[in-house]
Amino acid sequence: MTETRVHLSKTEPAAYEALDAFSRTVGEVCRANGIDDRLRELVMIHCSQLNGCAYCTRVHLDRATKAGIDIDTLMQIPVWRESGVFSERECAALELAEAFTFIHEGGVPDEVYNRVGSVFTEKEYAALSWACVSINAFNRIVIAGRYPVPPRKN
């Protein structure tokens, strides 16, 4: 049984369009500050997975494959701490993604801030932080609206 939910992007398109414009600006900030598509997509996927957002996970998995990320790497995202496939920068970005996604559990802990800050410049840290803010906002809209993720037709 499916339940009809308010589709925020259709009910108030101006607000959704503003968020979409914000997201494009965040992409520009990332590019301008040395955050490549690979790193940004790893963060987008991880936040979406942590939030349980199947729709955004699929969108960003598609974008990640277009950015050249292989299936093995994508499958390792949930277990990044135990995996050896990620660089120091990627591990720091994934850790920051977790801190922003679970920010309600006490903010970004000092040890995470210091560890991530030792890997990224201030501009890179800010760009990744904005990327986390952006995807977490989209995750909440999509989850609240229960956007469907049907099987793909091959």
Short description:
It is built from 8 helices and no strands. The chain is an all-alpha fold and 154 residues long.
Q: What would you note in describing this structure?
A:
There is one protein chain. The protein is mostly helical. The chain is 68% helix and 0% strand. It contains eight helices and no strands. The protein has helices at residues 8-11, 13-32, 37-51, 54-66, 71-76, 88-101, 110-117, 122-145. Helix 3 (37-51) packs parallel to helix 6 (88-101), helix 3 crosses helix 8 (122-145) and helix 6 runs antiparallel to helix 7. The mean pLDDT is 95.
Broad structural category? mainly alpha
Helix/strand order = HHHHHHHH
Q: Write down the overall mean pLDDT.
A: 95
Number of strands: 0
Outline: globular
Largest sheet: none
SSE layout and pairing:
Layout: H1 8-11, H2 13-32, H3 37-51, H4 54-66, H5 71-76, H6 88-101, H7 110-117, H8 122-145
Helix pairs in contact: 2-8, 3-4, 3-6, 3-8, 6-7, 6-8
Name the descriptors:
154 residues, mainly alpha
